[in-house]
Write a sequence for this structure.
C-alpha cells in the first residue's frame, strides 16, 4: 500500500471504521492499482529499448494494462458506493463527504497519470521510428559518396604511382575502409532496432571464414609486430550451414579489437566443438554442432566492472579507452545481437594487463555437401619435415595441423637448435618463418640467412627443399629463390595454399612460377561459349552505347529498345536469353514493362535492372515488379559478365577467361590522365581501354545532352518537375559513365530533391547554376581531350 495515501485516508476515519472489513477491502483495491501503475513504468522503460518487431506485443500489454486500470477505477467507484451504504453505522455524513472528496481527487490523479502514460508511449514510438528512419537514411547518404571515394581510390591504385603517392593513397583507402565500417555498424544498429536483420542459411567453411578474416587484419597486426595464430580443431566439420557473412562480421570485429588493444605479443583464434554434451546433437535429419570460436589476445585487458558495459551500445570500457583507441562502442553490441539471433552466445574473460579472451558459441548444422578439401581426401606423403618457428603458439598450431595432414613434424624454436638437429638427422624438407628470433649463436638476422647457412653444408642439406614464410609487410626478393628448391608463402597462412605448396615441394613438382607468391592475379571475365541474345532497354543513347559495346565484347548479340513499351513488343517478336532493363523511361518505365512482360507468360526470362538509383527501396521495387536482379550504374564489364554468368540459361554456357592478348591496354598518353571535371582514365576503363570507342561515346554525350542543363532550369521555372527529374536522372547516368563524377553528383542532387518532395520542390538556384557551370567545364575538357587524341 502506498504509505502516504494510507496515512491520509486513515486520518479521516475513526478507529472503529478503520478496522472494518469493508474499508480493508477498499484499501486493498487502491493498493493493487499502485502496483499496476509501477508495472506500467517498467513496461514503458522496456519499450524504449525494444525494436519495432516487439512493439505490437508491447502495445498489446499496455492496452491490457489500460483496461485493467479502467476496471480498477470502476471497482473503486463501486466500493465508494458500497462504503456510502455500509459506513453510515460508523461515520457521519460530514466524515464520509471528506473521504469521498479525497478519493475522487485520487481517482482523477490516477486517470491523469494513465493519460500521460499513453502519451509517453505514443511519443516513444514516434521517436523510435524517427530514429530508425534517420539512421537508415543518413547511413545510406554517407555510403553513396563514400563508395565513390573508395572506387576512385581503387582505380587510382592500379595506375603508375611513385612511393609517396602510393603511401598517401593507401592512407586514404585505410581511412575510407574505417569510415565504411563505421557506417555499416550504424546501419546495422538501425536494422536491429527496426527488426529488419535477416540471417542466411547457406553452406560455408569455418576454416575459410577464419583464414579470410585474418587476412583482413594481418597487415595492421604485423605492422605492430603482433603474431597472428589460428588453429581449427579436427573435430570441426569442413562445411556447415549458417550465415557466413554475419559470422565473418563477428570474427572481424573481435579480431580488430584484439589488434587495436594489443601493443605486443600475440593474438590467437581457435575453432572447436564445445562441450561433449553438445557434440553432434541430432535435430531432425541433420546434425547440429555447437562450434566455439575463441579469440585470445595479450592486450590491455578489461576489469570486471568494465566488462558489464561492453555489450551496451555506444559504450566502451571507459572514456580513456575512447580517447586513446577511438571507436563508437557499437561493434560488440552488434556481435552480441548477431550471436543471439543465431541462437548462440558471446562471453568474455579478462583481467587488466593480462589480455582478454572472447568466446563465441554458435549452433550450426552439418552441410550435406559431399565435396571435401584435398587434405582430407589426399593426405600428404609421410615425410620428415623440420619446422623452424620461434613463436611457441604458432609452432604448436602449425605442428598440429601438419601432423593431422600426415607429415612427421619436428619443431625447433631457435636457429642454432635447428642447425644442430639438421646435422644429426635426415629431413626431407624445411618450413622456415623468415621472422625467426635474431638472438642465436650464428648471428643470423632472418630466415633467409638461416636457409643460406643450412645450404652451405655439404650433402643433402645443400639442396634441401624449403618453404619460406613471410609477413605481408615484408618485401621478399623472390628472384633469389627462382633457381633453387624454394617456395614462399605469406603469413597468415591459408590452408589450401599451404597444402598446395607442400604438395609441390614434396613431390618435386615445382614450376617456374611457383615461387611468385606475391604475384598480382590478372583479371578475367566469364564469356559464354555461344552467342547470347540480349535486349537492352534504355532511353539514353550514351547508356545504350556503353551497354551495347560491353555486351558485344562478352559475345552477345544486342538489340536496343528505347523504352518499356518497345521492350514489350520486342519480346513478343523475339526470343532473348537476358534483358537489361532501365527503370526510368518515357512512355512506359521499367517497372510497368516488367510486370506486363511477366503477365504475358514470360516467367523464366531473366530481367535485370540497370539503374542509377541506389536506395534500398529502389532495389525492393525492382524485385517486387518481377525483375530477377539489380545492377547500379555506372556498369562495369566485370559486373555485366557476372550477371550473364548468373542469369544466362544454365544448360548452354561454359566458363572461359579472356585471353591476355584480347585485353586492351590504355596507351601511355592516356594512362592516369585526368582533367578538371572529368576522370578520363575511369571512363576509358569502362570502355575496356579502347580509345576510339571512348571518343565516340564522349561525342555522343555532348551531342545528346548539351542542352540538358539549360532545359532542367527551364523545366523547374515552369514547374514541370517530372521533366526536370527525367533530365537530371539521364544526366546523372551519363556523367557516371563517362567519368564525370561531380556532374553525376550534382544531377543526382536535383533529381533526389524532386523525387523525395511530396509537394512542389524548392530547388535552390545555386544547384542548377553549379550544374550548368560543371557542364561547361566538362564540355571544354572533352573538346580538348578529343583534339589531343584523334
Amino acid at each position: 500500500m502506498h504509505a502516504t495515501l494510507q496515512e491520509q485516508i486513515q486520518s479521516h476515519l475513526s478507529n472503529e471504521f478503520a478496522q472494518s472489513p469493508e474499508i480493508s477491502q477498499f484499501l486493498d483495491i487502491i493498493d493493487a492499482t499502485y502496483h499496476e501503475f509501477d508495472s506500467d513504468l517498467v513496461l514503458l522503460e522496456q519499450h524504449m529499448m525494444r525494436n519495432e518487431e516487439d512493439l505490437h506485443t508491447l502495445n498489446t500489454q499496455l492496452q491490457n494494462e489500460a483496461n485493467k486500470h479502467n476496471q480498477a477505477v470502476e471497482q473503486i467507484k463501486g466500493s465508494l458506493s458500497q462504503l456510502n451504504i455500509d459506513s453510515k453505522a460508523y461515520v457521519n455524513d460530514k466524515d464520509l463527504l471528506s473521504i469521498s472528496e479525497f478519493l475522487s481527487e485520487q481517482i482523477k490523479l490516477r486517470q491523469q497519470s494513465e493519460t500521460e502514460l499513453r502519451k509517453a508511449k505514443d511519443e516513444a514510438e514516434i521517436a523510435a521510428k524517427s530514429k530508425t528512419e534517420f539512421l537508415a537514411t543518413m547511413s545510406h547518404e554517407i555510403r553513396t559518396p563514400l563508395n565513390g571515394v573508395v572506387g576512385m581510390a581503387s582505380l587510382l591504385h592500379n595506375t603508375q604511382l611513385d612511393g609517396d603517392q602510393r603511401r598517401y593513397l593507401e592512407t586514404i583507402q585505410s581511412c575510407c575502409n574505417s569510415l565504411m565500417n563505421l557506417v555499416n555498424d550504424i546501419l546495422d544498429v538501425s536494422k536491429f532496432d527496426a527488426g529488419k536483420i535477416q540471417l542466411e542459411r547457406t553452406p560455408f567453411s569455418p576454416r575459410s571464414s577464419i583464414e579470410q578474416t585474418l587476412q583482413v587484419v594481418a597487415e595492421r597486426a604485423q605492422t605492430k609486430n603482433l603474431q597472428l595464430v589460428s588453429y581449427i580443431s579436427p573435430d570441426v566439420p569442413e562445411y556447415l550451414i549458417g550465415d557466413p557473412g554475419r559470422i565473418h562480421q563477428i570474427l572481424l570485429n573481435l579480431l580488430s579489437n584484439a589488434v587495436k588493444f594489443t601493443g605486443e605479443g600475440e593474438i590467437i583464434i581457435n575453432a572447436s566443438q564445445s562441450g561433449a554434451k553438445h557434440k553432434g546433437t541430432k535435430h531432425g535429419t541433420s546434425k547440429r554442432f555447437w562450434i566455439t570460436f575463441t579469440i585470445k589476445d595479450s592486450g590491455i585487458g578489461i576489469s570486471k566492472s568494465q566488462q558489464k558495459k561492453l555489450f551496451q551500445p555506444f559504450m566502451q570500457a571507459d572514456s580513456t579507452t575512447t580517447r586513446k583507441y577511438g571507436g563508437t562502442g557499437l561493434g560488440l553490441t552488434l556481435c552480441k545481437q548477431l550471436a543471439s539471433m543465431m541462437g548462440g552466445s558471446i562471453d568474455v574473460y579478462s583481467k587488466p594487463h593480462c589480455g582478454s579472451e572472447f568466446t563465441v558459441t554458435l549452433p550450426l548444422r552439418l552441410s550435406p555437401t559431399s565435396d571435401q578439401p584435398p587434405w582430407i581426401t589426399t593426405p600428404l606423403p609421410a615425410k620428415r619435415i623440420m619446422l623452424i618457428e620461434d613463436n611457441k603458439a604458432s609452432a604448436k598450431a602449425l605442428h598440429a595441423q601438419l601432423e593431422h595432414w600426415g607429415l612427421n613434424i619436428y619443431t625447433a624454436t631457435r636457429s642454432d637448435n635447428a642447425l644442430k638437429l639438421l646435422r644429426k638427422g635426415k629431413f626431407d624438407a624445411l618450413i622456415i618463418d623468415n621472422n625467426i628470433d635474431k638472438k642465436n649463436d650464428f648471428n643470423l638476422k632472418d630466415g633467409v640467412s638461416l636457409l643460406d647457412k643450412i645450404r652451405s653444408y655439404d650433402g643433402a642439406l645443400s639442396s634441401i627443399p624449403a618453404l619460406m614464410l613471410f609477413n605481408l609487410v615484408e618485401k621478399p626478393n623472390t628472384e633469389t629463390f627462382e633457381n633453387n628448391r624454394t617456395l614462399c608463402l605469406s603469413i597468415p597462412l591459408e590452408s589450401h595454399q599451404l597444402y598446395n605448396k607442400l604438395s609441390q615441394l614434396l613431390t618435386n613438382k615445382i614450376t617456374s612460377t611457383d615461387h611468385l607468391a606475391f604475384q598480382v592475379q590478372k583479371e578475367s571475365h566469364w564469356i559464354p561459349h555461344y552467342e547470347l541474345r540480349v535486349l537492352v532497354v534504355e532511353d539514353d543513347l550514351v547508356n545504350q552505347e556503353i551497354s551495347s559495346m560491353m555486351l558485344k565484347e562478352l559475345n552477345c548479340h544486342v538489340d536496343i529498345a528505347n523504352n518499356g513499351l518497345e521492350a514489350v513488343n520486342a519480346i513478343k517478336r523475339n526470343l532473348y536469353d537476358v534483358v537489361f532493363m532501365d527503370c526510368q523511361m518515357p512512355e512506359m518505365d521499367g517497372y510497368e514493362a516488367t510486370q506486363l512482360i511477366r503477365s504475358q507468360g514470360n516467367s523464366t526470362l531473366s530481367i535485370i535492372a540497370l539503374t542509377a538509383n541506389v536506395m534500398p527501396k529502389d532495389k525492393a521495387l525492382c524485385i517486387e515488379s518481377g525483375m530477377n536482379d539489380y545492377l547500379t550504374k555506372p556498369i562495369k564489364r566485370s559486373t555485366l559478365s557476372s550477371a550473364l554468368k548468373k542469369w544466362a540459361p544454365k544448360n548452354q554456357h561454359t566458363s572461359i577467361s579472356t585471353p591476355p592478348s584480347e585485353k586492351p591496354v590504355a596507351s601511355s598518353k592516356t594512362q592516369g590522365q585526368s582533367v578538371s571535371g572529368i576522370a578520363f582514365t575511369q571512363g576509358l576503363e569502362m570502355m575496356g581501354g579502347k580509345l576510339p570507342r571512348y571518343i565516340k561515346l564522349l561525342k555522343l554525350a555532348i551531342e545528346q545532352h548539351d542542352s540538358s542543363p539549360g532545359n532542367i532550369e527551364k523545366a523547374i521555372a515552369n514547374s514541370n518537375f517530372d521533366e526536370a527529374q527525367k533530365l537530371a536522372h539521364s544526366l546523372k547516368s551519363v556523367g557516371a559513365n563517362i567519368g564525370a563524377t561531380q556532374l553525376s553528383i550534382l544531377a543526382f542532387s536535383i533529381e533526389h530533391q524532386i523525387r523525395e518532395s511530396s509537394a512542389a520542390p524548392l530547388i535552390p538556384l545555386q544547384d542548377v547554376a553549379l550544374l550548368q557551370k560543371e557542364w561547361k567545364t566538362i564540355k571544354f575538357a572533352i573538346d580538348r581531350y578529343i583534339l589531343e587524341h584523334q
Residues 93-157 form the longest helix (65 residues). The chain has five domains: 1-197, 202-366, 378-506, 532-657, 680-789. The chain has a mean pLDDT of 74.
